[in-house]
Specification:
By secondary structure, the chain is of the alpha/beta class. It is built from 8 helices and 7 strands. It folds into 2 domains: about 60 residues; about 170 residues, 3-Layer(aba) Sandwich (Rossmann fold). It is about 40% helix and about 20% strand.
Length: about 240
């Protein structure tokens, strides 16, 4: 529940607003004489409550019950005990680097926070940093200029982070930079929610926060890279393996 609680903290204003609107619609239904209008208002009231519950349940499944931050589904794909250098990209929220460093003490992991992302100034970010303190070796990066030498990295991990690069051209530049710094047999691992039917059902307009699968493939292919594998982590998120 640790991350789900943070999701509630980040979205509490929207949740409270939804509850208020739902109550107002339900109360208003008692002041209207039209049977069809009463039914409509009560259905809308119920749907708002249902959507809040569904989105929180989906968040729990995605963030606290899935393999999203465990990376167990990379077994047989990446052996962190054997690789030398890796980059972890996040967007001011890092629940992963501490565990990776503890599990693989010989891994040279560089933790990168995307400079200027939308989460930097959110009210809940300070609380989230108390739960998951920033890595002391973390650096800020501009996605279009990665501060690494050519062909120096074995793996680039980007877990629910790259959708914060809002401009398509900037995403293309990031992938071009990733291609430059990766070794010939290097791998980019991108885990993201897609703007798809499932996420619209559970997260409603919140799904607009994400990119469609088509947008990801366009940015990746424009950088001269290819998606070699597209794995479902949960019904709400996919892991793309890119070379």
């Amino acid at each position: 529940m640790k991350i789900t609680k943070l999701v509630i903290l980040f979205n509490y204003q929207k949740i409270v607003l939804g509850l208020i609107v739902s109550v107002l619609l339900f109360v208003l239904s008692f002041w209207i004489n039209s049977g069809s209008a009463v039914l409509l208002l009560r259905i809308l009231s119920g749907l708002i409550i249902l959507n809040i519950i569904a989105s929180l349940a989906a968040s729990y499944v995605l963030y606290d019950q899935s393999d999203l931050y465990e990376l167990k589904n990379l077994k047989g794909v990446v052996d962190f005990k054997k690789i030398e250098n890796a980059i972890l990209v996040h967007a001011s929220f890092d629940p992963l680097s501490k565990g990776l460093e503890e599990k693989y003490p010989n891994l040279n992991l560089t933790v990168c926070d995307i400079f200027g992302n939308r989460h930097e100034h959110e009210k809940g970010i300070e609380t989230s940093k108390k739960v998951f303190p920033p890595n002391p070796k973390e650096i800020k990066i501009v996605p279009s200029q990665l501060p690494f030498e050519d062909q120096s990295q074995d793996v680039i991990l980007a877990i629910t982070a790259l959708h914060e690069i809002l401009d398509h051209e900037q995403r293309v530049l990031f992938f071009k930079e990733a291609k430059r710094v990766l070794k010939n047999d290097g791998l980019i691992i991108v885990s993201e929610q897609f703007r798809d039917v499932t996420n619209f059902i559970f997260f409603n307009i919140g799904a607009f926060h994400f990119l469609s699968q088509k947008q990801w493939k366009k940015a990746i292919s424009s950088a001269g890279l290819s998606v070699i594998s597209n794995q479902k982590i949960t019904p709400f998120a996919n892991m793309l393996l890119v070379k």
